[in-house]
Amino acid sequence: MDTTITDKTPDGSYVDWPAIFAGTVVAVAIGLLLTSFGAALGLASITLDGTDDSSTLELVLTALWLVITLVASYLAGGYIAGRMRRRVESATEDEVTARDGINGLVVWGLGSVITAVMLSTAFTFAANTAGNVAAGAGKAAGTVVEAAGSAVGGAAAGLADAAGAAIPDEAKNDPTDYLSNQLLRPNQVNPTTADPEELAQQTASIMANVYRTGEVSEEDRTYLAGAVAARTDLTQAQAKTRVDTVVTEAQDARQEAEEAIAAAKAEAEQAAEEAKEAAIDAAQAARNAAILTAFVLAAASLIAGVASVAGSVHGGRHRDQGRLFAGLTYRG
User: Fold this and answer.
1) Contact at 8 Å (CB) between 84 and 4?
2) 206 phi/psi in degrees, rounded to 5
3) How far apart are CA 78 and CA 107, in angstroms?
């Protein structure tokens, strides 16, 4: 009696690592290619810069591109793994399908790990960039405040210089000179015996005190009127009128300087607050965008896992049928 003996390939490993590595390399390569193309189109990551229709459309397009990139990558990688996997002849049809699908799932897992390692560098760079942006915003706010402070100082110095150019520096810088002169000066100015240099020094000391405090006593007014009368051809009444005019101008100049300083300080504080709020808003927008990007990536990755399994099963069927995807067929 004739007996037909059918040789069967002994069972091997359920996981065909060479085929898995091949599929993973293809999946990661296609993913990098599509990601680079998307980055050139501005679809590399989700940004939240407004609530208008263009921002919504950009968000939808970016999310759609991320899904297409991952699904296409792992669909191709899974197909390669399934098509190149060595079939164990002793396995049933359902077992072959299960093994093909699991190999495709391993392609997705291995590719996800490799992608995560590659993206960690990109996320680190993005975090550093966000930190630099926040630091830049803070620096900008500081620059605004510093510039405003410089403007305040310049305005005040300009007003003081314009109003008190005739005051000697030593009289401006040392308020004790005024107190000393107040103790030693005579009550009345004698036009015939008064020393011109002493009169100029005493007058400068009194005017410096006016600029410094905004106040002038009656004794100071009387002395100034006497000094003016001694050095000019004005009468005592005319000299007193000139003193009142100059003192009023000095007080007005000081008041203007104070108002300019207050206005500039308020403007600087407002600018600093606006810069701070802008930095906070930018950080919050970046955080929301990162959360949304991670959510879309997670959802797209799960879909890509299903696509990898389906691609691997489809590739396994082509293997059993002796067929090949048309895009990989060489027709020479």
Assistant:
1) no
2) -65, -45
3) 6
